[in-house]
Design goal:
By secondary structure, the chain is of the alpha+beta class. It has three helices and ten strands; from the N terminus they run E-E-H-E-H-E-E-E-H-E-E-E-E. The protein is globular, with a radius of gyration of 21 Å.
């Protein structure tokens, strides 16, 4: 059993990783020297993990019937302090719960704030299905932009945007938002399954089953910070 295999299913996607560890590796294989990342490198690694976790949440809970919504402030209505912004965020969530309850719909969401150094402020949110007209008057501080989610079920790029918005806010003032994103409590949370595999070495060949296709942008291979070889990629189910 010289390597580990990880599979994480989320909606239409399936992440696959194969890697060696201290206990599971081919005989005679020498790992590369451990790399101690700099503070900036470690921050980038942490943000990459945030993207991965957020992608799983998005893929498992949202689809082409859902909405990507941006609530933007008019310049004169921008909050002047963190406390005011937080009050607006809380009121928005309360109002959304009322609208979904009235429509007898289940509210699922993930949101993050974007605050630039020049004061531009937005709340970015993914919402479960609802008639867009019901959200017309829910945001009194500016403008609401709604875009339908793509139907392919792979929302990694959207997760990357969310984390970039968080990074922008973090660089402006770390006190504005402590969490990179804020999910509702009723979301499905995919759990990666790891198991040891038999064989001499893991194969770098990617076998795509019928009815699936490879997300080529997801493919990563190389060595972990501990010096062990790995390959990682995501498969997407075709159609519904």
């Amino acid at each position: 059993m010289p390597y580990m295999k990880m599979i994480c299913k989320a909606g239409k996607t399936k992440e696959i990783a194969k890697f060696y560890t201290y206990w599971l590796q081919p005989k005679g294989l020498k790992r590369r020297p451990r790399v101690n990342p700099t503070t900036e490198q470690q921050r980038k690694i942490n943000d990459r993990h945030l993207v991965k976790r957020l992608t799983r949440l998005l893929n498992a809970n949202f689809n082409g019937d859902c909405w990507y919504v941006t609530f933007s402030y008019r310049k004169e209505d921008r909050p002047q302090d963190v406390k005011t912004l937080q009050k607006h965020e809380q009121k928005l969530l309360r109002d959304l719960r009322k609208v979904y309850k009235k429509e007898k719909l289940v509210l699922k969401y993930i949101w993050t704030a974007e605050v630039g150094k020049r004061g531009g402020t937005h709340i970015h949110m993914v919402l479960s299905p609802i008639d867009a007209r019901k959200l017309r008057n829910i945001w009194p501080y500016g403008y609401t932009t709604l875009k339908p989610m793509e139907d392919n079920g792979q929302y990694r790029r959207l997760a990357e945007y969310f984390i970039k918005y968080f990074q922008k806010t973090r660089d402006t003032d770390e006190q504005i938002q402590k969490k990179s994103y804020n999910p509702s409590k009723n979301l499905i949370r995919p759990i990666p399954v790891k198991r040891p595999m038999k064989g001499n070495r893991f194969s770098r060949e990617i076998k795509v089953p019928a009815g699936w296709y490879l997300d080529k942008d997801s493919l990563r291979e190389g060595f972990t910070a501990d010096g062990y070889e790995f390959i990682y990629y995501t498969l997407i189910k075709e159609g519904g």
